[in-house]
Amino acid sequence: MSYKKITVFLLTAVFFLGLSGCTGTENHNPRNPKEEISIPMILTVDPSTGRKNEEHVVKAFNQAYAGTYQVDVEWIMETEEEYRKNLKRLNVTDQLPSVITDLRTLPSFYQMMVEENRMEDLSPYIQNDKEWKDSIETAVLEACSEPDGSIYLAPLSTAAFSCSGVFWNKHLFQEAGISEFPQTWEEFWNCCEKLQSHGVTPLALHTEGTAWSPMQFATAELADSKEGSAFMKKLFPDSYHNPHGLQLAETLKKLFQYTSDDALHADFDVAYTNFISGKAAMIANGYWMIDQIPEDFITQVHFSPFPGNKLISSPETFGWAVISDYKKEIKEGAIEFLKFRTKYNKNEKELFLNKKIPGINQLLTDYIDAYNSEPQIVPNYQVKWNSLLQEQTLGEYIPKLVNGEITTEEFTLMEDESIRQFQKESR
After folding, report:
1. What's the predicted TM-score (pTM) here?
2. Which CATH superfamily includes the segment(s) 164-312+367-426?
3. Is 355 helix (H, G, I), strand (E, B) or coil?
């Protein structure tokens, strides 16, 4: 669920344009190589593909700043969920690297880091650097800014690579006599019924982690009404025992009527495997999954917005932070790296939205068209709701809801219990 898995052909195009076009600088006046400053960082290796996430931008920076700065990455084979949990451990043991990622998907941890002054305020650097500031879309900069104007998450240039929608298998749709993706939620449920009646499992779902894929469907549907959309924009709702929470629970329960037997107590990897093996017709995920789809399968896959022309995106989740207790020269190098990343991303965006990408395929074209269709953007629940609800309550109680062990009302009461527990632990 991140910008980390950028497509290979887009990277190739960026490299062909040359590093000077990405950085906006021609000469970094490298020092003596012996004085090269190391910028420690931890990045993950995707367990499903073996790819080093964000390796492209690290290599580009290290090449451009050779002799001056070097991003020194410790590559760890773990999921993004495991990485996020480890951030908390590394903070307690004072072992955080100088640059950290994924922080905004842990809203309570992020707030604690802000309150304890653990991160550099980047707003003076961005506001005083016109080139950097002008390279960032206004909506993205606003999303990464605090009410007082401080910025702890260095933004990407664009939200273009941060959106989630629905990947669907056109061959399985054709088997059920369906020629296009449903445009309304009524059509969506009818589509699920039709697929299932033809022996096709409609949805690839899971419950562990933060129940990412089913929650994408459920929150997108909730935002179909004006009131539901407003609820999705609320930070740390004070209750889910209301019409919005009940609707969400009903949708979750209904979704699992159209999935595989192994969806409960499973992580996203199970849902992903069921989709790419042709065992399920649809999966909710973001742009980053394009690079994870096998070459021999990608021609079978299309991408569409959620019904009602909705995409889910919170660009602040892709902002990276600089830890404040490092030496001045390391922090300066880390900030230069984040500035480089923004400009690098801007170059990608220009190629991307103009479809000037070598070897562009139909799936990527689908995504670009979806992004350019002026969709309603629904906030990602992961940046809005408390961590106990996401990391514990959903995984424990969605299976019980689906199996009929608890009612939708009881499910919302368990969500509210997570709020009380979270508030108690945050004191």
Report:
1. 0.78
2. Periplasmic binding protein-like II (3.40.190.10)
3. coil
